[in-house]
Amino acid sequence: MSGAIVVSGLSKRFGDVTAVDAVDLEVHEGELFSLLGPNGAGKTTLMSMLSGLLRPDAGSASIAGHGIGSVAARAALGVVPQDVALYPDLSARENLGFWGRMYDLRGDTLRRRCDQLLEVVGLAERQRDRVGTFSGGMKRRLNIAVALLHEPRVVMLDEPTVGIDPQSRRAILDYVQSLNRDGATVLYTTHYMEEAQELSHRIAILDHGRVLALGTHEELVRRVGEHDVIDLEFAGEPDLNELAGIFADLPGVRVDGADPGGHLRLLAEDSDTALPHLFQRAAVHEAPVRSVTVTEPNLESVFLQLTGRALRD
Amino acid sequence: MKLLALAWKDLRRQFRSGLLLVMMLGAPLLLTGLIDLAFSSPAGTPEIATVTLAVADLDAPPAGAPVAAGRTLVDALSAPELASLVQVVRVDDGAAARAMVARGEAGAALVIPADFTAAMLGEVASAAASLTTDPARPLGAGVAQDVIQRALDALTASALAARLTTQSVAGPAAGLLATQAAMRVAMGAQHDAGEGVTLKAPVGATGSFVTRMAGQVMGAMMIFFVFFTGAYGASSLLREQEEGTLPRLYTTPTGAATVLGGKFLGTAITLAVQVAVLLSVSALVFGIRWGRPAPVLLASVALIVAAAGFGVLLLAFVRTSRQSGPMFGVVLTVTGMVGGLMTATFTDLPPAFELASRFTPQGWAMAGWRLCVDGRGVGAMALPLAVTVGIGLACLAVGVPLLRRRFAQGVPS
Amino acid sequence: MKVLAIAGKDLLQVMRDRRALIFLLLMPVAFTLFFGLAIPTTGAGSHDARLQVGVVDADGSPLSAQLRRALADSGGARPESLDAVQTRYVDDLVRRGDYAGVLRVPAGWGGALEGGAPEPVTLVVDRSTQAGLATAQAVQAAVQRFLAAQRVADAVAATTAGAVAAHGGAVPDVASVLDAWRSPPLTLEVHASGSGSTSETGMSEGPYDQASPGMIVQFAVYGLILSAMVLVIERKQRALARLATTPTSRAAILAGHALAMLAVVLGQVLVLEAFGQWVLGVDYLASPPATALLTLALCVWATSLGMLLGAFARTEEQVVAWSLVAMFVLSGLGGAWFPLEVTGPTFRRFAHLTPTAWAMDGFRNVLLRGAGLAQTWRPVLVLVAFAAAFFGLAVGRLGRRPD
What we know:
The complex is a heterotrimer.
Chain A (H helix, E strand, L loop, with lengths): L2 E12 L2 E12 L3 E5 L6 H8 L7 E6 L2 E2 L3 H5 L1 E4 L11 H11 L4 H14 L15 H13 L5 E5 L7 H16 L3 E6 L2 H7 L2 E6 L2 E6 L1 H6 L5 E7 L5 H9 L4 E7 L3 E6 L2 H14 L4 E7 L3 H9 L6
Parallel strand pairs in A: 3-8, 3-9, 6-7, 7-8
Antiparallel strand pairs in A: 1-2, 1-4, 4-5, 9-10, 11-13, 11-14, 12-13
Chain B lengths: L1 H15 L1 H22 L11 E7 L11 H9 L8 E6 L2 H9 L5 E5 L3 H5 L6 E7 L4 H31 L5 H18 L5 E4 L8 H35 L1 H7 L4 H31 L6 H23 L5 H18 L12 H7 L3 H13 L4 H30 L6
Parallel strand pairs in B: 1-2, 1-3
Antiparallel strand pairs in B: 3-4
Chain C lengths: L1 H15 L2 H20 L12 E7 L4 H12 L3 E5 L2 H5 L1 H7 L4 E5 L3 H6 L6 E4 L5 H38 L6 H8 L4 E7 L15 H15 L1 H13 L2 H7 L4 H29 L9 H25 L3 H18 L11 H7 L3 H15 L7 H24 L3
Parallel strand pairs in C: 1-2, 1-3
Antiparallel strand pairs in C: 3-4
Helix pairs in contact in C: 1-10, 1-12, 2-9, 2-12, 3-7, 7-8, 9-12, 9-14, 9-16, 10-12, 10-13, 10-14, 12-13, 13-16, 13-17, 16-17
């Protein structure tokens, strides 16, 4: 497997803000790779540099072996921008025809690809209607279709599911997977960890412009130690240090931290066996539990552990 | 050809916009149509409505006077051949006549004084008839004044004949001879009522007053709205950036030069279509003669270059497409107004207006079209054509680098 | 109170848009000033208003010299002899506008006139121009005057031939007739009605008497863009439908919107009238009650048009396009740009199908004739009738479909 996207030391600053900070990564040929990070992590800036819209301040990158920004790199790439970028006063078919020409398609090839993609995104019936009359989901689907016209080796999708209904979202995730099955390398950015988890072969977690962790879902989750996270919230104003001491000697349970506001975070090898003991000790020490949250290890907990913040903050 | 695909896409979008079609074709044709309808007439000159003339004849001829000048004047004004110009309504006194004007029932009121015949006969030095006009209808007043003055001239001629006769001949026969001379003049006037002047149009002059006026208005409106199209075409770059399609274009294997070139080509073709449609439709519908083919072609090209260039320059000064509408509206209206597009048919404009118009591209374009409509050759139009094109190119020279920096920065060409 | 709340909200939306100031006030003021200044003020400055007429005198007789003098005396034309070179390019000189016309007096013209078989002179003139039309008229009048003088001289000579032969004395020639004509026994004095002033032409119309009310009427229509836009956006965003779900009656909603539009257009018209009155010297206060009634009727009608536009337009783009067309048609046809008097009969008939023509009639009545209420009720009635019809249509539409 060779690198379909190779990024090395890529940086971009906007004034005092470093949006992308010396990022290194390699996306293999045929891989479905996700960039996961909260809003403002630098995902879109990274994508913009890869698609040739922004010049990096430092570092280099290549798409299918061609330097980013080059005509060859752009020809190998299909970009799905975060916001719908289509001509509302042209029909679905006219949009596809126009964008196809921009990707150097013409004649029968162009017609055939338009037909195929209209079928794939389920817009064949509405192909003569102006895009301005479409629903948000339909526009999103067409927005993706435009990037696939020239059968690119590499497809980049920038948060394609933001703000759309669950059905359209499901359909989009399915396209992305089938696209990848058909051989395309996919770079997918999202701040939904479920999407990254479901779709990707490998995931890079990005925050403040840096890659914090990179690996398969299993590899990343293993970093938090395969422990369940138990969050106990107590009523009143209990002495959390004292409670931490009480729980510390339970087998298979480790205290991870305490938050002001009555939260105690524990790591348990098996939350099912640990919970009855926890409740019992709390009752004995007259510390009434108001709520319990059990989180099995996932990307959210990975992000939390890496940054001390929740992904959605 | 990506350039053509880009231009074709813009053309399709523009010709689908109802507002743009109204601005490009509807408005100029509508305005010219209004003017044409307002002033056209079978004679090809503006027609003025018949003026109702309220007449109070207070003339009291001296006893034994051979003529009643007041009545003669009223009869002359009531002659059938003047019926299309003035319609005489007799009233009893001056106040009643003037009241009719004040109420808007008459366009003018004529009061013939008591000593009118006496003045004609030389018994008093002179007498003045009084014409009261409706200030709200100055043209009708002018017609009435003209008609009355001609009738007065006829009476004056007779009076002068009598007066001069008595000066040449002394003695008892003088009175009789004077009357004879006056009669002779009056009869003679009836005999040779011929014009005395043959009017001849200069060789090469085209069209009637109304088609020429329609041509000037149409030319001015065409220039006015063509500049809007130029600005709108340029600002579509801004809209594409806001819609995200411009950045997306740069992710495709298409160079910045091609993208900007396609935009410019699209605007130029739109402008050419607009000019061609306006010229041909107005020629067919209003009978406007635009001049010879070569000058018309050159004037069109100059106009297109200037409009496209000015649009590109204006775009450099707006940040959002929401701003662009009002900004273009105000700037193009003001420059168009100063350029003389709203006053194309005015004559005797103060010299400052003419001077000011030369500081706008529209003023130079209009100067070129005026010569074109006058049937002049390319040679006569060289200066305005050159300046119009020059302004357009200068705007492009300033505007294009600014646009490149703004809309294609960092993008490989 | 809800009506006021809705109106207040609309007003806020309109006024928050800084473009409002441009469209409502700055543009009409600029247009008024421009058109007022563009109209030439007669007799002002050193500019000679007389038309320059070239003369090619192939006759060279004393009579042709007198003809030329009659032309100079006429006040309408300024005769100027052409040199030999110019004589060859008469058509070009006229077509290019170097001369408003060229008068050719053929050789032998004077002799033919004396012989009792007058020949016409030729005037080369382009009557497709304003100057050409005026020149033809001025030259024709001067030639008429000259021929009349010639007839007088002939008549006197013929009548007195016997007596002069018997008793002696001088027979007057054309020159002395033209001299005598400089102080004619019968004259015409022209006054403008209502003004009491006497002038050569009798016109007391100031440069702004057309431009000021014209632009007020035009921009009252154009200013609707903003108000109608509020209504259309409201419909598009379903805010109108939402309002209808609150315990607010549909009548109150519509009245609220209409009230806001009325306030905007009334404010605009009043400011422009004040500008006309105190800056441009247009006499809106010639009859305050008539002006007030007319202003109110104009604004009510404009509001009804705004409601109509807001009720039927589906997009903002349509609002802009329709109000542009409405502005052009209603102001052009309604005499806001040029007095209807100068237009042809067909046009005048069409014009009075528009409410704007009636509004202009009303304003010109007040400004130029000083007309009072008695002459204002008719335009006011027509405006109100149009307003009622437009309101009816708008309410019918909005009432049926609140979206």
